[in-house]
Design goal:
With 426 residues, the chain is mainly alpha-helical. The chain has two domains: 189 residues, Up-down Bundle (Growth Hormone, Chain: A); 211 residues, MFS general substrate transporter like domains (Growth Hormone, Chain: A). It contains 18 helices and no strands. Helix 9 runs parallel beside helix 15. The chain is globular.
Length: 426
Amino acid sequence: MKTAAESSKMISTPLKIGAFRRFASANLISATGSAMAPLALAYSVIEQGGGAGSLGLVLATNTVPTIVFLLMGGLFADRLSRSRLLFLGNLLAAGAQGALAVTVATGHATTMSIAACGFVSGTAASFIVPATQGAVAQIVPEEHLQQANALLRLPSNAVRVLGPVVGGFVVAVSGAAWALAWDAFTFAIAAVLLLGLRLEVPPTTPGGVLADLRAGWTGFWSRTWLWTYTAAGTVLVAAWLAGFQLLGPLVAVRQYAGARDWGLIQAALASGLLAGTLVCLRWKPYRLLTVAVATSGALALPLTAMACSLSLPLVLVAALLAGIGLDVAIVAWNTAFQQQVPQAEQGRMSAFNGVGERLAIPLGYLLTALAAHSWNSQGVLLACAGIIALTTVLNLCVPDVHRVNRLAPKGESRAANDDREIEQQA
């Protein structure tokens, strides 16, 4: 199979690359199951008599492995075939979700068995995530990376809008086991598709595991734009999770019409993500990292709107804009990362970045629990919005952020690139 580096034939869209179509199909199929999984997992705990404590344990055992094993996954992604890692990761996830579906269907599920399956699924994710970034850069030519990243997110975001609704219907009509079984089936199909990629092993240097990790850390720390973006992302994601995911439903109950209006706010955010992907298919900014940092600050909008008790239509507009900004930020970041980090280091760099942002999950929830004793929900929401805005501004003050720009295609000058951007904006 021809990789991006080996292909000399000019293409107009990543969809003309057979390997990318296979990769995108696997991503879409897997996303249909993953969209239903959280709801099915929650109800599988509830159906066996578990409460908030049991659900918290299950969610924790699913999250912890993605932090603990992510660095190892990044190391493997730089030493082994990324397509093989993706195949094995999806196969492992299929086995874990399949086992969970069987135990739930037969009535033998317990909190510990559900947690054990979640642990295996989280472990699989820790190997899938670092391999994915590098795989896209191996498959798609440099000049088409943004379009490829947007095309990968387009169906995923569409599924994110419809998936919870379909998942809720399936769970209500047939039970959680069927939704979990579908999740397992989609992982298995994705594994079969990914097996056919056969990506080559990235170029490596001789050395052991510890030497590779040390070299990875040195490379991560030497790129100021990378570690500052990761540090800022950790704080920003923690504030977002605390304000939107944790406090949002509570504020919706007190200020709005409860679950109904919270569902509308979530739908507005998901619609914004979908709209943001469409923006990225048309707009190709030169200053990729600057755009990624700036647009992520839009996450402060719905938190501010809810903290100020604005009307529901204004909150929906704020959530929509936040979704657009978030998706533009993700696509711009992925493109900048894939263009600026060498193939041989992308697995480890992605893992270091991922560990930082995943630490935001427990950090955000812990800080919210502490702040809730002193402030009301509106006060905490406003503080979270302020943290997001301040973090965005501080990250924009890092000079290296403005030096990480889109690489011009071979033979094209910086001036030509700037002219093209001006034409697109006009």
